[in-house]
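Schema walk-through. Below, the input block comes first and the output block second. Nothing else is stored per chain. Lengths vary across the set, and this one has 317 residues.
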Amino acid sequence: MKALPTVRAADLAMPEASQQEAWLVEGLWGSEAVGIIGGEPKCGKSFLALDLAVAVAAGVPCLRRFPARQKGPVLLYAAEDAATIVRLRLEGITHAADVEFESLDVHVITTPTLRLDRNEHCHALRATMANLRPKLLVLDPFVRLHAIDENAAGEVAPLLGFLRSLQRDFHTAVALVHHARKGAAHERGGQALRGSSELHAWGDSNLYLRRQGENLYLAIEHRAAPGNDRLQLTLRAEPPALALAVVENHTAQSSDRVQPTPLQRIEQILAESPNPLTHRQLRDAAHMRASHVSDILAKLIATGRVSRSAEGYRPNP
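--- output ---
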């Protein structure tokens, strides 16, 4: 059998000059990174995606906080918003960023349907990328880009693989807006995403929005750089400007306290119950995926903190 080819690490090709900058937007999105902008409905995901687009297209800080380290065209597909809404939102963000809207290098795909599970649509998107050579591709939201089963890894992986191929072939970043499951407030951002875990694993840079009471928080996650778990944001309206902004020096409120980990949440639910709880009861009470609850219970049983009987699970004294 023929052996696989190898090369010494020191002989690997050096990155091209265009690839040496680590950041597209410093601290927020990596250079040529693919990833998810995720969160529950009405958390400002689209506003954040558009703010990222304006930052890259104009070379200005995203959220007036994170400097753009590279500047270039942005290709945007907003499947759920009318063209007039997209324009108004972009105008509001450019006002907030002190950018001239008329010269903004954002290119909006106007076709009514774009499906990543159709070959002809993928070919058309690839041709558009080849013509424009964008620094950033924004697709909003994932649920409108296919007719597959989002829970089936075998169906999700080819779509994500196609987007990864666009990133590699055109040296572009890709931001995919995606919904979190309702009632997943106690889970980490990536674990709360709707559908297959392939989506969380795919991202090089991921941004997760979460609303707690009246407060909106951003969690920043990178594959190869430090992140930020809890940055408070607000949607600031100063007509004609309308854009997300970082809340400076916010005072911690009761809703701003550190949330328990998923493992701590399961322990808390068991401790508060007078009777043993079944796997389903725990899953429903914690608003977690069944596989995630199983993993946590296995750890708790292995460490002797929880025992299992025919009636269900209970904490050990």
